[in-house]
From TrEMBL:
This is DNA polymerase III subunit delta. InterPro entries: P-loop_NTPase. It comes from Campylobacter canadensis.
Length: 315
């Protein structure tokens, strides 16, 4: 299935879906559309590094006292075996859904067959018409009323990198914009204080605008190091509380932050408790990937990984 046929899928009754290809913005948007369509109460995201058949199978097969509907999202750069996918698909029904997102440009005929035609292959957008089509789809999904001239300006401003153009558009969810507003906005300094960003990242449900701003204002490796530092501080608090049943910041951190910061740290630690291993693995995977690729790749990777990290924390 190609993207022009994708809208009809959103109106069909389906329990599983396979999406793959090389266009980051298409993968991001189509995944968001599928998540909205399935609208399950309980979600589990498994990246390539933390996937195992047992983990995925147990999530879908076991009953939960907290919810009836479940959505399993598996995201990878390597194909899963047909045997694994058949086992997971066999569990899918009205209440249990599966999305497999593969960042791989090679044709996957064997996996397409396993998914019984419920798949979408996306390609890089090589001309203005294709790029404008995906940006229009993006605007429709996020209820952005953008003029053609504004989208064209956005495409040119980011040198035809539609993933960056899409991230910029996230600032205008449920809003209207014209070319003059956009020119003024993209020329402004998007700097954001890191501490403010970090707490908003932990506590808020909608942080895509903040993610884009912080990635634009920080070197990727420096930003990653700051994230490590902040999460390690929260991990120290979690470990101290589990051992002592209360928190002494002077002993735990070596200093006592202001009272309002202490409250935020305690609340943030509770939110990420039991997710520490997954958070560290995701950060390590991101660091390794950044060091293997050129600097031109780093911003796109950081945005993608921060979105995944936020999804992990909030679900």
């Amino acid at each position: 299935m190609y993207e022009k046929d994708f809208p009809r899928v959103l109106n069909q009754k389906i329990d599983y879906f396979f999406i793959y290809g090389s266009c980051e913005l298409s993968l991001f948007l189509r995944l968001e559309q599928l998540k909205k369509k399935f609208s399950c109460e309980q979600k589990l995201f498994l990246s390539q590094s933390d996937y195992s058949l047992n983990t995925a199978y147990d999530f879908l097969s076991q009953n939960s006292i907290f919810s009836n509907s479940k959505l399993l999202i598996i995201e990878s750069t390597k194909a899963l075996s047909s045997k694994d996918l058949k086992a997971l698909i066999s569990l899918c029904d009205d209440e249990k859904k599966l999305i497999f997102c593969l960042r791989n440009i090679k044709a996957q005929a064997d996996i397409e067959k396993v998914f019984n035609g419920y798949f979408l292959r996306v390609f890089d957008k090589k001309n203005t018409n294709e790029r404008m089509n995906i940006l229009n789809d993006f605007c429709a999904f996020y209820n952005i009323k953008a003029s053609y001239e504004a989208l064209l300006f956005l495409e040119r401003n980011y040198e035809f990198d539609i993933f960056k153009a899409g991230c910029e558009l996230l600032k205008y969810k449920n809003l209207s914009l014209n070319i003059n507003d956009l020119k003024e906005q993209v020329s402004e300094d998007d700097f954001i204080n890191f501490d403010d960003f970090f707490f908003a990242f932990i506590f808020n449900d909608e942080v895509n605008n903040l993610i884009y701003s912080i990635v634009n204002s920080e070197d990727s490796i420096a930003l990653l190091n700051k994230l490590y530092s902040q999460f390690l501080r929260l991990f120290s608090i979690i470990a101290y509380v589990k051992e002592n049943a209360n928190i002494d910041f002077k002993v735990c951190l070596g200093y006592t932050p202001p009272i309002d910061v202490c409250k935020k740290l305690e609340q943030a630690a509770r939110i990420i408790d039991y997710k520490t291993k997954d958070i560290l693995l995701l950060l390590q995977e991101c660091e390794l990937d950044l060091k293997r690729h050129s600097s031109d790749y780093s911003q796109q990777k950081m945005i993608s990984q921060l979105i995944k990290l936020h999804f992990l924390i909030k679900n």
